[in-house]
Amino acid sequence: MFSPLLVAAAETDPEELDGLAGWVVDLMETIGPAGAGVAIAAENLFPPMPSEVILPLAGFTASRGDFTLAEALIWTTIGSVVGAVLLYWIGVAFGRRRMYWLWDHLPLTKTSDLERTEAWFARHGRKAVFFGRMIPIFRSLISVPAGVERMPFWQFLGLTAAGSAIWNTVFVLAGYYLGEHYDRVEPYAGTFQTIVIAVVLLAICLWIVMRLRALFRTRREAADN
């Protein structure tokens, strides 16, 4: 027998429920709203898992009365914070010494680049952590440099909780009010994520081109001398 929640959700996108959404539904049916928190914690550790699917589905489940809207918001925010904290401590364990060693062994990189990045994070790290929680992909990644740079833990925790609460509330409420049409949220969020990825890839390509040009110029000048 299929559960009422699984049947209702499957009416919107049966194929999706064979994968991630089906797993999230199983979690929420097994352990209640805490299941949404577990799913979001996993999404933080494995960024390819889209919160844009999990959060609206949690809101949809709340709209059916399986648990309250407040429980959906609280547990998803707890899950976000737990996942982010784990990544923060991974960054702490990795440390600056290993980061510099790794950076020195990467092609086309210079120590001065990393030093400037660290200086930037020292000035803007709080804003980066807060707003980073509302940007796809960076939602997870921003926690690691915060740990590497040893941002004060309680500061990191507060900024992460605040940024996560805003992001989660938007998507949970969307699922709550859209009801069985919760899946309409994902295409818009997916477009936003695609734009973010495209911008990042473009920036990386431009950086590589500029670095190669500087490298060739240096070699040419050395050969002329």
The rounded distance between the terminal residues' Cα atoms is 80 Å
* Beta-strand residue percentage: under 5%
User: Secondary-structure element sequence?
Assistant: HHHHHHHHHH
Mean pLDDT: 76
Helix content: over 70%
| Structure classification | mainly alpha
- Count of DSSP helices? 10
Give the total of beta strands.
Answer: 0
Rg over CA atoms, rounded to whole Å, is 21 Å
| Unreliable sequence segments | 1-17
Shape: elongated
The number of distinct structural domains comes to 1
Q: Main β-sheet: number of strands, strand sense, barrel status?
A: none
Give structural attributes:
10 helices, mainly alpha, 225 residues
Describe this structure in words.
80% of the residues lie in helices and 0% in strands. It has 225 residues and is an all-alpha fold. It has one domain (4-224). Helix 3 runs antiparallel to helix 4 (51-63), helix 4 packs antiparallel against helix 5 (69-104) and helix 6 crosses helix 9 (153-178). The model is unreliable at 1-17 (pLDDT under 50).
Give a quick summary of the entry.
With 225 residues, this protein is mostly helical. Helix content is 80%, strand content 0%. The protein has one domain.
How does the SSE layout of this entry go?
Elements: H1 4-10, H2 20-31, H3 33-45, H4 51-63, H5 69-104, H6 111-132, H7 138-141, H8 143-148, H9 153-178, H10 185-224
